[in-house]
Specification:
By secondary structure, this protein is mostly helical. The chain has helices at 2-34, 42-67, 74-103, 107-125, 130-147, 150-155, 157-175.
Length: 183
């Protein structure tokens, strides 16, 4: 019985991850169409994270109520969420590689330039010395273009793992519901 429940949870988590990944692709395409620089905007990242947390929480609670008799401890809730977020991040990363390498090879340069420009504005806003600004911008120039490449995306895959774990901790706490000790 427990093995069947685990299999159901894993398949539901995979399905949730695919749904979330497809939603991420839709958001990325819309941002790309509206203004490519939105792809590098931290506000879009925050909005997407909130939407992802909400969706995984909703689908996880729905699964818990329908398939797990309304109860699920933290560990299976965390694992459900982690699988969903990780699958979604792999799908999103694959789409970004496709976007940056095949669909629009100029996109990484545009996004890198935008990121450097944003960094310069921020440093000037904080009153950083001119030589420090120039030094930082020189360092960023080479790093930024690579971070938007296929190699850069794959090098940063550890970020997907960690962010999936952090988001799964949050949603695991939201989804979990323990059976009462006494009924």
């Amino acid at each position: 019985m427990e093995e069947e429940e685990k299999k159901d949870r894993n398949s539901e988590a995979l399905k949730t991850g695919v749904i979330l990944g497809l939603l991420s692709i839709i958001i990325l395409v819309l941002a790309y169409i509206v203004d490519i620089t939105l792809l590098g905007d931290w506000k879009l990242g925050i909005a997407t994270s909130v939407l992802s947390l909400s969706l995984v929480s909703y689908l996880g609670i729905k699964f818990r109520n329908e398939e797990s008799d309304g109860f699920m401890s933290f560990k299976p809730s965390f694992l459900y969420s982690f699988v969903a977020f990780f699958v979604s991040s792999i799908i999103s990363a694959a789409f970004l590689i496709l976007l940056y390498e095949v669909i629009d090879p100029e996109a990484p340069k545009i996004l890198a330039d935008q990121a450097i420009e944003n960094t310069e504005k921020m440093m000037r806003g904080f009153g950083a010395p001119e030589e420090k600004i120039e030094e930082t911008l020189e360092q960023l120039d080479g790093q930024m273009a690579e971070s938007f490449s296929a190699v850069g995306i794959m090098k940063n895959s550890w970020v997907y793992f960690i962010s999936s774990a952090v988001l799964a901790l949050i949603t695991g706490l939201i989804i979990r519901k323990s059976k009462p000790d006494f009924e």
